[in-house]
């Protein structure tokens, strides 16, 4: 099993030029601030969020998918922005090649997420916030590790009008901060 997973990981990294490799336990966050809009897009192996990477079988697994979606839909509790920036959540979109949009709580039909290597699937999530005072935004605390203990680290890329920054977050280092000057 381990060898198969490794081969899939290698295939994923070889095939995907833009998309990050599918590695269990590692999620990717792209954070961008443009004007007063803060966008956060997340890509994570479903394994790190659910413990499986296929359509749910039975009520217990369906309940796990719904619980995952409800945690992520309350994204203002997952991503804690600098209070003085006055950011409020405006939209959340969740998609996965393995899960139906309805199960993820999507109302509008969106194009299906990209196919992953056989046997693997990601969750793609887009979160959008509007900030009353974006100049004051200088930190985000990412609260994903308690809800999803299988998530071990997050590779984060931040782009603001002033700077670009990369960070690696973990349960012991959940905050990205920067100088907003
Ligand atoms: Zn996988």
Can you give a write-up of this model?
The chain has helices at 2-15, 46-50, 58-73, 75-78, and strands at 26-34, 37-45, 79-81, 87-95, 122-131, 139-142, 153-159, 164-169, 175-177. With 181 residues, it is of the alpha+beta class. The protein has one domain (25-177). Strand 1 (26-34) and strand 2 form a beta hairpin. The longest helix is centred in the middle third of the chain and has 16 residues, at 58-73. The radius of gyration is 16 Å and the shape is globular. It binds zinc ion. The site of zinc ion has 6 residues, from loops.
Write the layout of secondary structure elements.
Layout lengths: L1 H14 L10 E9 L2 E9 H5 L7 H16 L1 H4 E3 L5 E9 L26 E10 L7 E4 L10 E7 L4 E6 L5 E3 L4
Parallel strand pairs: 1-7
Antiparallel strand pairs: 1-2, 2-5, 3-6, 4-5, 6-9, 7-8
Keywords: Signal
Pfam families: ZrgA
Protein name: DUF2796 domain-containing protein
Question: TL;DR of this structure?
Answer:
The chain has four helices and nine strands. It has helices spanning 2-15, 46-50, 58-73, 75-78, and strands at residues 26-34, 37-45, 79-81, 87-95, 122-131, 139-142, 153-159, 164-169, 175-177.
């Amino acid at each position: 099993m381990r060898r198969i997973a490794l081969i899939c990981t290698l295939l994923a990294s070889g095939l995907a030029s833009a998309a990050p490799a599918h590695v269990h336990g590692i999620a990717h966050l792209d954070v961008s601030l443009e004007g007063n809009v803060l966008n956060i897009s997340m890509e994570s192996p479903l394994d790190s969020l659910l413990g499986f990477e296929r359509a749910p079988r039975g009520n217990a697994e369906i309940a796990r998918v719904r619980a995952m979606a409800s945690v992520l839909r309350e994204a203002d509790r997952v991503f804690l922005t600098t209070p003085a920036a006055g950011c409020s959540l405006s939209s959340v979109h969740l998609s996965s090649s393995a899960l139906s949009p309805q199960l993820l709580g999507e109302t509008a039909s969106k194009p299906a997420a990209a196919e992953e290597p056989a046997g693997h699937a990601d969750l793609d999530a887009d979160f959008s916030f509007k900030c009353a005072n974006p100049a004051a935004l200088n930190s985000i605390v990412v609260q994903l590790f308690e809800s999803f203990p299988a998530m071990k680290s997050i590779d984060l890329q931040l782009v603001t009008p002033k700077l670009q920054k990369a960070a690696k977050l973990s349960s012991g280092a959940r905050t990205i901060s920067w100088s907003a000057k």
